[in-house]
Structures are given as structure tokens and as C-alpha cells.
Amino acid sequence: MLDRLGALAPAARLGLSSLDTAGTWYRPCLFGPGQLMPLAVCATPIGNLEDVTLRVLAELAAADTVLCEDTRHTRVLLERHGIRARLLSYHEHNEAQRTAELVPRLEAGERIALVSDAGLPGVSDPGARLVRAALDSGVDVTVLPGPSAVETALVASGLVADQYRFLGFLPRGEKRLAALWEELRSWPWPAVAFESPQRLPATLRSLVAADPGREIAVCRELTKRFEEVVRGTAGEAAEIFGAPPKGEITLVLGSAARRADGEDDDRALAAVAELVAAGVPRRRAAAIVSGLVGLSRNRLYKGSL
Question: What residues does CATH 3.30.950.10 cover in the chain?
């Protein structure tokens, strides 16, 4: 199959844009007379270039123009898979200007694909403005799904619940961070955010000041050679990341601990004491009770001494 992908670009120029399971080229979408080609929003790998889908490769090969944040970055992906395409920059600094230029081209029937440097355009990346403008102009939009740092980090963290909240890039400044931590104290589900590696140590120190026992996972360089997922409390992570790490960072915060009253605290501490008396190591006993009642593990451990 991979050998066949090397012929993807010339095949696409003939109007053949993908492979079925039998290895036969076919057109994934047929458009009737006068029907405009939709704007194709394409997800690209978040690290490993092999994670791109066949459908995205087919669309990038068939497009008249591929919009990308950084043409150099996207060209690496295309060259890896033997695709030649006309690239046009589309990023936060020219998004408004480009959108005004591109809508008439979409209305004229040009086939345009939109990618970002990693993941799905329009979510914490340029693209939402063009999608809205295309829809307002009567041009359909089709989304080709694929890799996502958000869901990848959430599953890898082990902190999955029935819901989660995506925070985008964390705010800058101690006051804004402190306000966010306070808001999340009442959010009973996990939360996922992007953070700069340079700001990560300060961010973790800020979280420690607000909620040191919060379970978190720091996901670094997901899907890449040096992928790392560090799980623990905010306090433990702050000790590990005292200096800025290298690579892309996705931060997962576990569900907020249930705020218990004094009576609940006493019952939880009594449960820890019973487990210790039965021979369970104190730290393990604190972790077990913490998982059952939602109180901080460190708080239960220290309170039981």
C-alpha cells in the first residue's frame, strides 16, 4: 500500500484520488454540474508523519491549492508521501486578508484544502474565519478528521471521564491563571490545555499554589520519538519540570476533587487508618481512599500521620 502512495499525485491529476481496499483508484466525492467543490479542512499528523489518513493524502494531492500555516512544514509532509501541490500560506497574521481573497476563488469552483502545522485547522489554529466565510457565501465545508493532540493526551493521561473541557492555550499572567484554577475547582470533569514549554514551570507552580493535590498529566512530544507522559499531582509535576522542557506540551487536569466538609475528612482519615492497621502501606492506603472519596492523596497521607 505504501508503495502505491508514491503514485498518488500523478494519479490524482488524472482525477483518481484514493484507493479502495482492493487497491483500485476511485473518486471519493462526485459533484454534479454547477456544484461547487467544498472547502476541505484536513487534519494532519501531530508528530509522526505516518499518522496522516489516506483520505487526507488524496485530498491534498487533488487540491488546486493547499493552504498551510508554514509552507516549509507542510512540504515535509507532502514530500514524505510523494505529493506535489501548490502551497499558499494561511496563518494568524494574514488570515483576514487571505480569507477575503479565497472566498471568491471558492465561489469560482477552485478546489482548496486547508491544513495547519498539526492537528485539525480551526481549533486553536487558523481556519475558523475561512470556514465561517465559506459557509456564509454558500460554499460547503467538508472536514477530513485525523490526529488530535487533545484526545491523544486525554486517553494517554488515564484521566478520562464521561466529559472533558478543552481550554485551548492557557492564559498568560499569574492573575488570569489563578482565576482559571479557581473556576476549575467547581468543574467535575477533566480539562485539557496547550502550554508553551517555556511557560510550563511557572504554570505548574501557579497550579500548585491553588490546588497542589490535583491529579494531572504533562504530555510532551506526543507520537514523536521522545514522547513522554508524566502523571502525578500538580506538586509532583512541578518538581519534575522545574526547568522548561523541550517539545510540544499538552496538559491534562484530572477531575476536581470533591470538596468535603470536616465530617467527611474525619471518615476518610479513619478509613486510611483502618487500611494501615490491616497492613496496607500508608501511602497506598491514602491513594485508595483518595480515589474513592475525591480528596487529595497527599492531604490524606499527611493527615493520617
Answer: 150-253
Architecture of domain 150-253: 2-Layer Sandwich (3.30)
Beta-carbon contacts of 131 under 8 Å, excluding residues fewer than 6 positions away, are: 39, 41, 122, 141
The DSSP H or E segment spanning 211 is none
**Contact, 113 vs 105, CB < 8 A?**
no
Element (H, E) at 111: none
**Read out DSSP for 229-263?**
EEEEEHHHHHHHTSS--SS-EEEEEPPPPP---HH
The answer for residues whose C-beta is within 8 angstroms of residue 100's C-beta and 6 or more apart is: none
Residue found under cell 496547550: 194
Which H helix or E strand runs over 89? Answer: strand 87-89
Taking only the tens place, the pLDDT of each residue in 90-145 is 999 999 999 999 999 999 999 999 999 999 999 888 999 999 999 999 999 999 99
The domain defined by 2-147 folds into: Cobalt-precorrin-4 Transmethylase; domain 1 (3.40.1010)
pLDDT at res. 295: 73
Closest CA to 254 of 211, 304, 197: 211
CA distance 118 to 179: 29
Amino acid at 235: G
Cell of 235: 506538586
**How far separated are the first and last CA of the chain, in Å rounded?**
61
User: Helices (DSSP H) in the chain: which residue ranges?
Assistant: 2-5, 8-13, 54-62, 71-80, 95-107, 128-136, 149-157, 174-184, 200-210, 234-240, 262-277, 282-293, 297-303
